[in-house]
Amino acid sequence: MYIFKRLRDVLRFRCSNYNLKGAGRCTRKTNLAFDGSKKFPRVSRPEQIELIQGKIDDVFHWNRMDYAKPTVVLAVYYTVVEGMPAPQVVRTLWNIHRVKVSHDTITRWTHKAAFQLSAKTAALVDIPPKKGRRPRLYADETQRRVGGKKRWFWLSYCRKHDLMLGRNLTLRRTTKSARDLLSMTQDLAPSLAGGQLLTDGLWSYPAAMDDIEWDTDNRLR
Q: What is the mean pLDDT of each run of 10 residues along the chain (221 residues)?
């Protein structure tokens, strides 16, 4: 193998037979951390995601708020459970409860609650290992524009248990982005990780699986 790319946190090696044609072609690639190990910094909780570290205060400071807890609970219920957009929540709170709240405030409450709820639900993901094949996991990424800027949102999901596990928000699609997603998935549901993983054709997924010692033969494209 030879050094194919020098990335921010790793050296990427590629098989020297990559450009051959026919049966002798080898497409194998692998990443090596700069310290020579196969251990990489790993994300295990949403609070560790680079784009949001320190940017969202997930604590409700009730002594400084102008609204009562029931109002906040209703707003969070409408947005998170019912999936209502903030302007619709504003109208509902006014039409039914005669409480006037701006849509910016609703959005801020939802962001705060999202981290608290994700921590609580993560603690509930206690699926004991069973004999036989593990449930298949799914992973995908999609592009969004936030304030005119391009962002990538990543998610891993288990259909059998209807669980949204790992999630990530990044500036671009990289192996590190996929690695953080799968690391969070392993941390939240270790009894599910390591089995079959269905993804699109993005090479970052098998590279990330290799980085965290998840057998790449279990990847389905």
A: 82 88 85 71 79 80 92 94 92 95 93 79 71 88 88 92 87 91 89 91 90 89 92
Last residue of some domain: 124, 147, 163? Answer: 124
pTM of the model: 0.71
Measured between alpha carbons, how far is 170 from 51 in angstroms, rounded to an integer? 7
What is the pairing mode between strands 219-220 and 197-198?
parallel
How remote is the C-alpha of 90 from its chain's centroid? 29
Write out the residue range of the structural domain in which residue 180 sits: 134-221
Tell me which residue of 136, 131, 137, 75 sits closest to 107, measured CA to CA. 75
Q: How many CB atoms are located within 10 Å of the residue 185 CB? A: 26
Cα separation of 192 and 135, whole Å?
7
Residue 11 lies in a domain: yes
Tokens in use for 154?
A: 């990543």
Total count of residues recorded for the chain: 221
Q: What is the pLDDT of residue 70?
A: 94
Only one residue has tokens 């699926």, namely: 127
Parallel, antiparallel, or unpaired for β 29-33 and 163-170? unpaired
Tokens of residue 120, six digits = 């609580």
